Automatic annotation (TrEMBL):
Ranges annotated as spanning the membrane: 22-47, 387-411, 423-447
Membrane topology annotation: Multi-pass membrane protein
Family of the protein in this entry: Belongs to the glycosyltransferase 2 family.
Gene3D superfamilies: Spore Coat Polysaccharide Biosynthesis Protein SpsA, Chain A
Top-level taxonomic group: Eukaryota
Keyword set, alphabetical order: Glycosyltransferase, Membrane, Transferase, Transmembrane, Transmembrane helix
InterPro entries, A to Z: Ceramide_glucosylTrfase (IPR025993), Nucleotide-diphossugar_trans (IPR029044)
Involved pathway(s): Lipid metabolism; sphingolipid metabolism; Sphingolipid metabolism
Name the UniProt record assigns to this protein: ceramide glucosyltransferase
Listed EC numbers: 2.4.1.80
Location within or outside the cell: Membrane
Length: 564
């Protein structure tokens, strides 16, 4: 038998090296990571499925509004007049393709109690300012009747009508001591109604269900010990690799929000809190956010942990989150090559990939902290996440080498007996493939159940569908996202600065120390919504709110991906 070619010899040597005890451990570890994720998603799916079954049982029992509340008697007028006042604070920045629909879902809540909506912008030049003004003008021109007696059988005395909406647009001005989002939130809290019992913070990329505010408020009323109630998004990828990377990044975190109750996790996109905690600065919530705060959810989660306060996430608090259709990953190769150079030499270099900017934001929050304990926890998260990310990717690199070596042996006619590593390597690769399939199956099942739950919680909306998820792209996104995470984390650690929404924040001792604004050098678009950051005008919506609601009801039973 002829000797191996140099290239074949190198490939077989590499495959043999990947059969060493350390390499075998790394590959087995990758299998274990896949199985742990699969088990976690299976548990989360069980919690969400249990809520679906509850809604189905309620509807079979005659409660056509089971998607709103467990007991239909809660919808009686005598009960609704006693509901507490809620102030909904929405910090806005820019205007994107999904914002209008999201805002409509927020202001058309079927809560039943007194509410006010506070849209807070940085300045009147923000495109969001004019978009909200147009939306509210459109909304106040109609009497809204979402569900009539005729549309839902089994009910003879209940209908929901709202002839006006208590909404304000507040100009907060520029932040000087904290992130612009936190500044907008605190200004909104200062302007909220004096009788508000609860305050609900919502991001502009949150698409609420009609009963979401009711569910959150009911849980707060049942258990006054709750410090914060939260939820989590169900990402609706647009089809690009970048959007699938966002989806894949969120999925492991979704386990912590599908507990059916107590959790240690907090998502800044949806947070309901006691209004008095802000009026009286209880536990230092105001000062902790105002004095150098960068991330609202990480700061409040740290405060909750320090004071042993309760955070909960209701099982129905999962919200559709359409990702911008122009969130592309076309520069991934270029970005990857440049990363290794700029991470140490040019700390101020900004990559144009929106996904990369998003990932930078997620890793940058671990550089902010409010106490020594918080710093230690963030360092632990930093180290663990980086280790597990590359620990997840490395086995696939090794598996590709094993498969490539085996193919070379087969195609060139070498005898399998001439190497002792190929069989063992293929066995490890086979186990990794089985574990990966199990992981993707569990992820698919959880996504399927959350899609079903969202459709039940918003029966008036166009139906979401699982058919548009590309699972081959999701697998690639898993590798890309986990490969880039440690690089992003290292860059955040060494630079201690980030450009987000056109503003550069610099940290010192875990708090914002310097804020720089430069429209000329900053990005024109940002975040997952692909939003326009600057400009004094936006186009007035061509269709009225009433018209859009009419179209929603007309398509009640027609499955669609999601409304754009």
């Amino acid at each position: 038998m002829s000797a191996f070619d140099p290239a074949d010899s190198f490939l077989l040597s590499l495959s043999r090296a990947f059969c060493s005890p350390l390499a075998v451990f790394i590959q087995i570890q990758g299998c274990v990571i896949c199985l742990i994720l699969a088990i976690g998603w299976a548990f989360a799916a069980y919690i969400r499925k249990r809520e679906i079954n509850r809604i189905k049982v309620g509807m079979k029992g005659g409660n056509s509004f089971a998607f709103l509340c467990h007991d239909i008697n809660e919808l009686e007028h005598s009960n609704q007049v006693n509901l507490p006042r809620v102030s909904i604070v929405m910090p806005l920045k820019g205007f994107g393709e999904h914002n209008l629909h999201n805002w409509k879902s927020q202001i058309t809540s079927l809560y039943g109690g007194p509410m006010e909506f506070l849209f807070v912008v940085e300045s009147m030049e923000d495109p969001a300012y004019h978009a909200v003004i147009n939306l509210l003008a459109d909304f106040k021109a109609f009497i809204l009747n979402f569900f009539t007696v005729a549309s839902l059988p089994g009910l003879t005395a209940c209908s929901f009508e709202q002839d006006d909406v208590d909404a304000k647009v507040i100009v907060a001005g520029l932040s000087t001591t904290c992130s612009q989002k936190i500044h907008n939130q605190l200004v909104g809290v200062e302007k909220m109604h004096k009788d508000s019992k609860y305050v609900l913070f919502l991001d502009d990329d949150v698409r609420l269900h009609p009963g979401s505010i009711r569910v959150l408020t009911t849980e707060m009323e049942k258990n006054p010990e709750i410090f914060i109630q939260t939820g989590y998004p169900l990402d609706l990828p647009s089809g690009t690799l970048g959007s699938y990377c966002i989806y894949e990044y969120h999925m492991p975190c979704s386990m912590g929000f599908a507990t059916g109750g107590k959790t240690f996790f907090l998502w800044g996109g949806c947070m309901m809190m006691h209004a008095d905690d802000f009026r009286h600065d209880n536990y230092g919530v105001v000062s902790g956010l105002r004095d150098g705060g960068y991330s609202d959810d990480m700061t409040l989660a740290a405060i909750a942990g320090a004071h042993k306060r309760l955070i909960t996430s209701p099982p129905v608090a999962v919200f559709p989150h359409p990702i911008a259709s122009d969130l592309t990953f076309s520069r991934f190769v270029t970005v990857t090559i440049q990363l290794f150079y700029y991470i140490y030499i040019h700390a101020d270099f900004d990559f144009s990939s929106r996904y990369w900017n998003y990932l930078r934001k997620q890793t940058f929050v671990l550089e902010s902290y409010i106490s020594k304990v918080n710093w230690l926890m963030n360092r632990a998260l930093f180290s663990t996440h980086c280790y597990l990310s590359w620990g997840f990717v490395a086995p696939y690199v090794m598996a590709m080498v094993h498969v490539a070596a085996a193919l070379q042996l087969y195609m060139k006619g070498y005898s399998y007996g001439e190497t002792t590593c190929t069989t063992g390597g293929l066995l490890l690769a086979s186990w990794l493939a089985i574990c990966t399939f199990t992981e993707l199956l569990s992820m698919w099942n959880l996504t399927r159940i959350e899609v079903q739950l969202c459709n039940m919680l918003s029966p008036e909306a166009p139906k979401l569908s699982l058919d548009y998820y590309n699972w081959s792209m999701i697998f690639v996104a898993m590798l890309v996202d986990n490969f880039l995470y440690p690089i992003s984390a290292l860059r955040s650690h060494f630079s201690q600065s980030i450009n987000w929404s056109g503003i550069r924040y610099r940290l010192k001792n875990g708090k914002i120390d310097k804020i720089e604004r430069n429209k000329e050098k900053g990005p024109k678009f940002t975040d997952l919504g692909g939003k326009h950051l600057y400009g004094k005008k936006v186009a007035t919506p061509k269709s009225s709110l009433l018209g859009s609601l009419g179209r929603s009801f007309a398509h009640w039973h027609q499955p669609k991906k999601y409304d754009v």
